[in-house]
Fold Protein HOTHEAD.
Amino acid sequence: MAAFVGAPKLFICLLFWLNTLSSLQGATDFYEFRYPFIKRASSFLSSSSFSSSNTDEVSYDYIIVGGGTAGCPLAATLSRNFSVLVLERGGVPFSNANVSFLSNFHIALADTSPTSASQPFVSTDGVINARARVLGGGTCINAGFYTRANSDFIKRVKWNARLVNESYPWVERQIIHQPKLAQWQDAFKDGLVDVGVSPYNGFTYDHVYGTKIGGTIFDRFGRRHTAAELLASANPKMLTVLVYATVQRVLFDKTGKRPKAMGVMFKDENGNQHQAFLTNDRRSEVILSCGAIGTPQLLMLSGVGPKAELERLNISMVLHNEFVGKGMADNPMNSVFVPMTRPVEQSLIQTVGITKMGVYIEASSGFGQSQDSIRCHHGILSAEIGQLSTLPPKQRTTEAIEAFIKRKKGIPHEAFKGGFILEKIAMPLSTGHLNLVNTNVDDNPSVTFNYFGHPRDLQRCVNGIRMAAKVIQSDRFTNFAKCDKPTMEKLLNMSVRANINLIPKHTNDTKSLEQFCKDTVITIWHYHGGCHVGKVVNHDHKVLGTRRLRIIDGSTFSESPGTNPQGTVLMMGRYMGVKILRRRLGKVAHV
């Protein structure tokens, strides 16, 4: 009887597995059926000039550069009433198993090939980082945690609270899930409450002090749901999405008092160049949604930025703005390794402790195996994805990463049981800058985040490491880990040796928490800034000193919203789309 009752469940799982397999193997058919407006850039027929008076030429009400976390919901919304062209430099996520499954999270970040969904870069601080290069943007390569911003953030950015509260659910209904809590996350939750990160708020999207379980873009089968899926809400007759379309610059008409965006120049997957133009309507816009690295880079490549920066690379200046590329920030993260005597289920971020001392505490656990890539990993803290948190930033070279991966392949996975407790600084005071290296948009610009440049950030890191240690030393967590309560020095030494001494050693002073913070700083990919409101854009996100040019992405943020920003960036795309439509059409807007 029990076997009979379990049969339907087995059958459903089998159907899901077959559906997943077929959707990956025949992904082209799958996404062309559901998203018929997605095409390769080489299929585009270029317009010949600024003028769109020729009725045979195609022009657009909105051209969105970057089909990422903000760009996809923005495009889906605007297309309900107007023609929209989205230009995305990467490919589609639907056929990429490294993107689609939680178990392959580390592999997507470890893939440094030119067609990877992830493009690595190293800040001048020496911290290895990544930026998305795929339709769906950062939602395709991140750890999946979903939470809303706190109400104070909404007030600071002067957004309409009512529209914000309408826009979050629009996203949540389509791609957000309640996680099945992993044992590691459950023990971590109990440990947080034990040490006073209270109250326990249960499962909630809201940003509230205490311990909570947040949402996730991974469903119960471990499959990722990205911003690209929000395009299913678009009007397919009004939307064109071109993948492998790398925008090289925005085209301006400089004959008026203020330069006016007319369109963009981009290259397709074969290297052929194209131009796409806006309609003649004064309300048509080019909207940059390339992220905190790509947007200030593209703005400068288009001639909008600091005069000296543009002259240095012989870029024709359209508009001098000294603030483009300034105020770059990244929330520094440090971690404490916790070894286990038994295998631990893989989990990314599900539980978070929101403290009142400017620090967030999170956790990841488990190992994964893949015959196609690396043998073992530590989830979000994998050395394979370039973090190498046991090395000081300046020593995290490409050679060190490659040597580590090569030597680690033959190690039995039993050596990698355990997980990490992570602490992240909320609203860091330390900021840096972004500069062009050359005029090739494919190359990363030079980025400095200036981690711990402000002493208060360093002190908050010290407090966060102490809090993380208390969680690990709590009765609830030690009972789960089945180990004696480790001392602070032992915890830090274990963290420094987390990669079992297979990488070149650096002598860390583990008695100095300040030094530990500096030497083991890594990123959780929450960088932002470079095009701040009031300096590069106004409160409607229109680029100051220009016409028909707007920026809608995290480059406009002076702080990362909530514990993890993706929820608010997704919401931002929907919010700004609705706001634009209502201002242009009033009550007749179809949203």
